[in-house]
């Protein structure tokens, strides 16, 4: 049995950190844990910011974060897990983008960093301290990386694009949605 190196330990720490944060945010959406609003409350919020239907959007977002985060932390199905989490974070970044980059102003900094970490793990792989390694990488093949990231990018572009088109259309009173005002509510 070979010893583990700094590379493997670094990937483990990155997976546990990013995966843990993603799981915590996802369980807020799905179950209302850690001060979250659960599917109902998150669904109402999703509707208010243009992601419709709200409950389905909350469920998809919560599953991408919780499931993607859990799988990343375990180092299992790493390409799909990283892609799912990155797609969820791209959707979150789209909401925060009108507020600029920095998180203290409500910007997309946090979502972008988690999305980048998830994408990086999908590309680099989980390292030897992972379930993928223990299972001889049956769920972590080279062809899976571009496939998972490509499918997720296409789906995310469709979802975020539909949201943006909704925000650009006038409502029944002829008013356009103000993203910053929606985000503050």
From TrEMBL:
Localization (cell): Cell membrane
Chief location bin: membrane
Top-level taxon: Bacteria
Keyword Cell membrane among record annotations: yes
Membrane-spanning ranges: 70-95, 143-162
Record keywords, A-Z: Cell membrane, Membrane, Transmembrane, Transmembrane helix
Membrane topology recorded in Swiss-Prot or TrEMBL: Multi-pass membrane protein
Pfam families, per database record: DoxX (PF07681)
Family per record: Belongs to the DoxX family.
Protein name: DoxX family protein
Species of provenance: Streptomyces nigra
Source species taxonomy: Bacteria, Bacillati, Actinomycetota, Actinomycetes, Kitasatosporales
């Amino acid at each position: 049995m070979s010893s583990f190196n700094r590379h493997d330990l670094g990937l483990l720490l990155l997976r546990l950190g990013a995966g843990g944060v993603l799981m915590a945010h996802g369980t807020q959406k799905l179950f209302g844990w850690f001060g979250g609003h659960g599917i109902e409350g998150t669904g109402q919020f999703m509707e208010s910011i243009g992601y419709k239907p709200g409950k389905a959007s909350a469920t998809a977002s919560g599953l991408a974060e919780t499931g993607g985060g859990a799988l990343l932390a375990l180092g299992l199905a790493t390409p799909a897990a990283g892609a799912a989490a990155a797609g969820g974070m791209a959707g979150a970044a789209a909401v925060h983008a009108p507020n600029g980059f920095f998180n203290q102003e409500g910007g997309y900094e946090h979502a972008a960093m988690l999305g980048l970490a998830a994408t990086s793990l999908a590309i680099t792989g989980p390292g030897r301290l992972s379930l993928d390694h223990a299972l001889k990488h049956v769920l972590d093949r080279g062809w899976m990386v571009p496939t998972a990231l490509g499918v997720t990018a296409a789906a995310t572009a469709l979802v975020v694009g539909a949201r943006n088109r909704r925000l650009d259309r006038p409502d029944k009173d002829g008013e356009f949605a103000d993203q910053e005002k929606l985000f503050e509510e």
